[in-house]
Write a structure and sequence with these properties.
Helix 1 packs antiparallel against helix 3 and helix 2 packs across helix 3. By secondary structure, this protein is an alpha+beta fold. Strands 2-1-5-3-4 form a five-stranded mixed β-sheet. It starts with 8 loop residues before the first strand and ends in a 6-residue tail after the last strand. The chain has three helices and five strands, in the order βαβααβββ.
């Protein structure tokens, strides 16, 4: 079934440092299904390329500026997920 616009969860993903290089962009808009979690969003981004999947294994994440401890947390529409690679040596 098509994702209903009223239940879709649009989120903005912002990439930094190595993640930005792998993504080829500083930000992307994802539209996830109802009940989507942070893990779902990460999975969606991982699917874009092998390089992206490798980079994301080492990343930490912020959701609306707060460190993500629980990736099974649900996303709300229009939240922003920041993808932060380890900065050391980069």
């Amino acid at each position: 079934t098509m994702t209903d616009v009223t239940t879709a969860v649009p989120v903005t993903v912002r990439f930094f440092a190595a993640a930005r290089n792998a993504a080829g962009t500083g930000a992307a808009e994802l539209v996830l299904g109802p009940g989507a979690t942070i893990a779902d969003a990460i999975g969606e981004i991982c699917g874009q390329s092998d390089e992206m999947a490798l980079v994301l294994q080492k990343c930490s994440y912020l959701c609306d500026g707060v460190a993500v401890r629980d990736r099974s947390a649900s996303l709300r529409p229009h939240q922003t997920l920041d993808v932060l690679p380890p900065f050391a040596g980069g």
